[in-house]
Amino acid sequence: MSDMVLTGGTVVTADASFRADVAVEGERIAAVGLDLPTNGAEVVDVSGALLMPGFIDGHTHLDMPFGGTVTADDWDTGTASAVAGGTTTVVDFSLQDVEGTLAEAVETWQGKADGKARIDYGLHVAITNLTDAVKQEIPSLPGLGVSTIKIFMAYKGTPLFTADEDLFEALQIAREAEVLVLVHAENGDVIAKLQAQALARGDVSPRWHGLTRPETVEAEATNRAIRLASIAGTPLLVVHVSCAAALDEVRRAHARGQTVYAETCPQYFCFSDADLARDGFEGAKYVCSPPLRDPSNRDALWHGLQVGDLQIFGSDHCSFNYAGQKELGRDDFTAIPNGLPGAEERPAALWTHGVRTGRITEQRFVAVLAANQARIHGLAGRKGALVPGADADIVVWDPDRTIDVTQANRHGNVDYTPYVGITLTGAPAAVYLRGTEAYRDGEILSQPGSGQFLQRAFRQPAPGPAVR
Ligand code: URP
Ligand code: ZN
Ligand code: ZN
User: Fold this and answer.
1) Concatenated DSSP letters of 90-107
2) 86 — phi, psi (to 5°)?
3) CA-proximal residue: ligand 1, atom 5 (nearest)
């Protein structure tokens, strides 16, 4: 017997859309089908709405130290903003302490999330110091429920930067350990040189953030990471792909039959290098890495999403206040903490610019926000699909709901939003987390601590492009 039946909606999966009721029993989906029995169950009429699996955001940075400060959103406010957009699961980056172990990073992040997370969550480990002991520790990560590590080819001069020798060895270890390597692909050496030259010339304003990280710097590192993964014989996930040149390296890998997953993010569709060049210090509000690009890149990114060269759409939510945080770089763009908020806007931005314009289908929307995220981030079976037995994470999506973004109607903890003044169409009317209402009509209903830690597992796929 079901506890709740959502009736009259249209279920959207990664493959098809069809009229169906969705029955929930406890925390799980009990049935999906026409005219399901409702005897005794709460009946929720969702006529006119689309029913989709709760969105998964495989790329957030909550309560994370970065650039001499700590992200503005913690696990309470960050997950509140995520669920307001329809996201019911995040996979966040636990940062290894330079002197610490990977297990300690996971434990520290579980401590940050514990009692605060309003939605379910998994954890990656971002490596800052790949010592011999850490290399030996990587195979133990799946036992902790962690199936992914992130390696940074950028940020030279900080502990995040990893040289090729170590990246390659990490890839080899990951292959044996059944761990997926996520790579931040920008050439850190070249960026450091260009930054030093810019500062020496007195070019200190935010627009130099973009000009010292040109597209070819990302494309070169993307190709290098892909080739190193090929030599190591293991899959790779290139995160936050921002431009056509980098995507072209992913496309070439797919043409060779290599398993390379790739993610892009809403900021590369909503903003551009012109925002970095805004008057005064306003450009600091748009500093993220890879940087915002010339809009001519967007057609290629849309094509990548359409054909499956880009399989996932993550937010890279990494929020810093303008006052006191972005301002750290007033006299030196290299001191501006990198990152933008976007967890709340991610689905609506993709619906507005992708589905409503006919660039992608609503099935593709579900694929890149939920189904593919679950497969790549090791959550398939439990998350990312509206099927019996899966967690009852359900988005009741109103395709026509329009929101004019203001600072006041955001649910996070940042003192500005780069999306201010933008109109987004398509929004959740309601969101369920494991069968319990977590959001409705602008109001966050899930409580801090409602979110559970998710054990994730990555299985080496058969050779080939794998997930599309
Ligand atoms: O600018 C960004 N993306 N900040 C977050 C850290 C990262 O590289 O993902
Ligand atoms: Zn990154
Ligand atoms: Zn990131």
Assistant:
1) EEEEEEPPTTS-HHHHHH
2) 110, 5
3) 339
- Tens of pLDDT, residue by residue over 292-305, are 999 999 999 999 99
Q: Are 77 and 414 in contact (CB under 8 A)?
A: no
Q: Which atom of ligand 1 is nearest to the CA of 160?
A: 8
Q: Is the minimum distance from the CB of 249 to ligand 1 under 6 angstroms? A: no
Ligand 1 geometric centre to CA of 337 (Å): 9
pLDDT for res 98: 96
Q: How far is the CA of 444 from the centre of ligand 1 (A)?
A: 27
CB atoms near residue 132 (< 10 Å) = 8
Give the chain's length: 468
Tokens of 202: 């007195």
pLDDT of residue 460: 77
The pLDDT, as a whole number, for residue 346 is 98
Atom 3 of ligand 1, nearest CA residue: 289
- Please, is 335 exposed, middle or buried when counting C-beta atoms within 10 Å of its C-beta (0-12, 13-18, 19+)? middle
CB 377 within 8 A of CB 322: no
Q: Output the pLDDT for position 246.
A: 99
Q: How far apart are the C-alpha atoms of 146 and 167, rounded to whole Å?
A: 18
Distance between terminal CA atoms of the chain? Answer: 36
Local structure of 236: helix, strand or coil: strand
pLDDT given at position 1:
80
Q: For residues 163 and 66, what is the distance between their CA atoms, to the nearest angstrom?
A: 20
Q: Is the CB of 339 under 6 A from ligand 1?
A: yes
Q: Is the whole model's pTM more than 0.85, yes or no? A: yes
Which ligand 1 atom minimizes the distance to the CA of 239?
Answer: 9
Q: Which residues of the chain have pLDDT under 70?
A: 462-466
User: What is the Å distance from ligand 1's center to 318 Cα?
Assistant: 7
The amino acid sitting at 120 is D
300 lines ligand 1 (CB under 6 A): no
How many of the other CB atoms lie within 10 Å of CB of 258? Answer: 20
Task: Name the closest ligand to CA 60.
Answer: 3
Rounded Cα gap, residues 446 and 448, in angstroms:
7
DSSP code for 383: B
Comparing CA positions, the residue from 267, 424, 444, 402 lying closest to residue 348 is 424
184 lines ligand 1 (CB under 6 A): yes
Residue 465: predicted pLDDT: 59
CA distance 104 to 198: 38
SS3 category, 194: helix
Q: Distances from the Cα of 244 to the Cαs of 194, 342, 363, in angstroms?
A: 21, 21, 24
| Ligand 1 atom with the shortest distance to the CA of 155 | 8
